[in-house]
Amino acid sequence: MIDEDWHRVCRTTELGDEEVTQLWIGDTPLAVYCIHGEYYATSDICSHHGANLSEGYIEDDMIECPLHQGCYHIPTGEVRKGPACEDLPTYPARVEDGWVFVQYAEDNE
């Protein structure tokens, strides 16, 4: 059973390996990733200049911002290369019956 903090965001077939997409929960844009068959979710907003990371470039388990090439580690949200200046919020993701679910509570932001 999925509680109210878990949101069904997309089918697993909608994301190929090493792909990212922007999905929204309420007014919050999230970047949802498939990396080697595992699913992850982070904020979609780069901490440096507010660009959408879902438009960025993935290499291995890193996302590169399309604006100034700051890099984040997708599983942890940690900054790995500037000018990104703060780690990304990350959100638990899981797969159930072919759907990707992300745990996100709007009141926790």
Describe the model.
With 109 residues, the chain is an all-beta fold. The chain has one domain: Rieske Iron-sulfur Protein (3-layer Sandwich). It has no helices and eleven strands. The radius of gyration is 13 Å and the shape is globular. 29% of the residues are buried. The model has no long low-confidence stretch (mean pLDDT 91).
SSE run:
EEEEEEEEEEE
The major beta sheet can be summarized as:
4 strands, antiparallel
Low-confidence stretches: none
Quote the average pLDDT.
91
Helical run tally: 0
Based on the coordinates given, report the CATH architecture: 3-layer Sandwich
What are the SSEs and their pairings?
Blueprint (H helix, E strand, L loop, with lengths): L5 E6 L7 E7 L2 E8 L2 E6 L13 E3 L2 E3 L6 E3 L5 E3 L8 E2 L1 E4 L2 E5 L6
Key features?
single chain; 109 residues; mainly beta; Rieske Iron-sulfur Protein; four-stranded antiparallel sheet; 11 strands
Concise synopsis of the structure shown:
The protein is mainly β and 109 residues long. It has no helices and 11 strands.
